[in-house]
Prior knowledge:
Distance between the termini: 56 Å
Structural class: alpha/beta
Number of strands: 7
Order of helices and strands: HEHEHHEEEHHEHEH
Strand order of the largest sheet: 3-5-4-6-7
Largest sheet: 5 strands, mixed
Shape: globular
Radius of gyration: 19 Å
Amino acid sequence: FEYLKALENLPLYLYTGGSQERALRASFPNARSYPDNALLPRTLLSSGMTEEQWMKRNKAFLMERTARQHPDFTHIAWVDMDILNYPICPQILPDFSEMMDDRIHLATIDGLPDASFLMTPIHCLSMLCREVASITQLDAEMGRDLSEETLLQRIFSQHPDLFALHPMPRRRLLFYEGFDPQVLDEKKKALLKERKPVYRAEPMIQRRMERTRPYDAEL
């Protein structure tokens, strides 16, 4: 987190708890205690969900909580606190504008979601929180996989046109697309060159129209 918080032009909130909370709050003014309300119920932990799974499935709720404090924002991102593993010029100005559209931007590795970095339009957060709560409750009741990856796959299968998927060769790369390649190390630059084109599913209404008009393909 030392490298990430050193970036002067990247506004951050840090949600923390447990034994490290006091030290992190002392060293970072925007640290916030992990809230007990407005999140998934902790009773899920008695259904076989681990603390780590519970925390990862709460990302959307924490993003919505932060968005309410900034009504002028159009987008909000989740960034894992240890995503930056080497120092970058503190004065660098990150630019995520290419991901600030009407889609939820998410990386995938071999088809599996990597939620270490998520760029989300604020208008999608309420729906995303409802889906997380509903699917998580059903997963717990049915004894299904409680991982964050499975959760995101299920949401994508129901709402594919809400996402822009970035196929990547390794985890934790999407965040680096917001930086000038000149400040990245050679390994990161080489990996980013291997990325594939962004996948955007067609809007659901358009796909329904295409299914009902097969003759269009013959025109």
